[in-house]
Amino acid sequence: MSRPLRTHQRQLAGIVQAIASGEAAGLRDILAAVTPGGGKSLLPVIAAARLVAAGIVDRVCWIVPRDSLRLQAEEAFADPAWRAALGHALSVRAAANEPDPCRGLAGYVTTYQGVAAAPELHLAEFRRHRYLLVVDEVHHLPALADAEPSGPGPAPGAEDEASWSRAILPLLECARIRLLLSGTLERADGRGILWLPYRQGVRTRTREVDLNAPGWAVVGYSRAQALAERALLPVTFGALDGEARWLDEERRAIGPHRLSEAYETARPALFTALRTGFADALLDEALGATRRLRAERRRRLGLAPGGMAPGLGKLLVVAPDQACARRYLAHLRARLPAASREGTARLAISDERDCHEALAAFRLRPEPSILVTVAMAYEGMDAPEVAVVCAATMIRSRPWLEQMIARATRVDPHAGPWEAQRALVYHPDDPLFRDVRRRLETEQGTLARARRPAPQGRLPLDPRADEDEAGAAIVPLASNALALRFDTLAPGPDFALRRPQPAAQGAPAEVPSLRERRLRQRIGEMVAAQVVEDEEAMRLPRGQGNYHRLNAVLKRVMGGRSRAEMTLAELEAAIGWLERNRLCEHLHLLRDDPRYAFRARQISAWERRRLAAAGKGPPAPEWRPPVGRLATPRRRPG
Q: What is this structure's pTM?
């Protein structure tokens, strides 16, 4: 049975068809802003099938944020229904950092960490073939200008993400076509996103993604559109209120305070609640709803009690940390039949050896029906059977919670008609969660906010560090649940974007900003080409860092101005200089730079020895033993 394409999938198919036919031959950047759960995993398949068939690209490279998502990328290309519907026979493989990652297939899937560990290997692959580069969940990559946070020290994880951006940037510059995917165009830390075009926001100290930027095609698929096409399920929130008591940093008894009260006590009250009796009550509510749902669907399918089949519905529990995740698992298993509790409820945290196996089983098999995790399964996991989410987490950033909620909004083809399905999310009823929900219903989520300077004596914290901040000096005492209320999430705003139009006949006028972008990309491609050519011709020793080293040479040649600072005339001059010169012959310009001086001297000596051996330069100086003071012989003890 053929599957109909959704709106955003038809939009992308039209864009790549325009590129393939030559109507939009100058178009190289496509941004797919698809609401979480809206089905963006098919977009790389559509793009690759059309562009490879048209001879625009030779191969596809799909970069995902986590190793657990590589299998899903392979599955998207291997899906027999879509292979028949799209008429393609392409296959990709999950590759490690080894030579020839495609191994005779049409492409490969890797991770951010994999590219950062061997950037030169992937760069060389991109120079050998014309690639369609797919960057999944691109909001994980901070813009390099924003990679160094303000304040006395970097936020936890900021350096890892900045290293990912530095490693992936050369691939973006070299790729023939770029497809950037994201369920949210906003980072939790407020920074910009790598490669995306920005303009000044309507609010002070903000920038927003320019969805009408020249040279970009934008595919938008909002929650409202997905609900209208029945591609997503409506969400009902079960907000559980409670009260908590704790000891503050001076060991004074505080409380009881209600979770739904003032912002001033929201963090410590929530920290306490998720580690004491309130968390047990929240888990019991979610487990009870899951049991009722599975019993109802068993009756509809005619299954005996305890019978297993696809489509019964599953429970995903997101815990604040690994210690709480283990405690939650023990609590849930204590309420399950002894004979099946080990297989029914599983744990997926990074410290567990079988975490990836647990995730795969939860996605692909009727059992386990309960998965407890911290962050491994909140984003990108394609498990349509998830019907209930227990959000027992302290994180209150919009992108994070939007991704977590989306785990339950996918339509399960085995669970009956769309009208009979609904996503159910249980969460603490605190004012911070209510603020995030209001933003989901009213704001588009494309802003980058300038970070406020950290107060003196305080380190800047990322959203996941809020829990440590709230609980560093308090001692949880007790908590209990009070009242449960249900609300339905409003559809939310549409993306305010312009439908991409094919290029008109005749050569349109090229605006300066678009011309600057094109010239900067051309320079990046030329530098990357010289790296690969010089390494293959043995003008440079193979090793990491050659791309950035030669970029530093070019900056010195151009008077210390980076590409982002150059005028149009300077960019054109840089291209002309690169066409006539090789950067590796000017490494002496880096000898006074402590970041590159030692390596530059190594490369220069290596080049002199190579030329001398080939008879193309002065002979290498004859080696002589060092002359100096003789070492004093050591006396042996005794």
A: 0.73
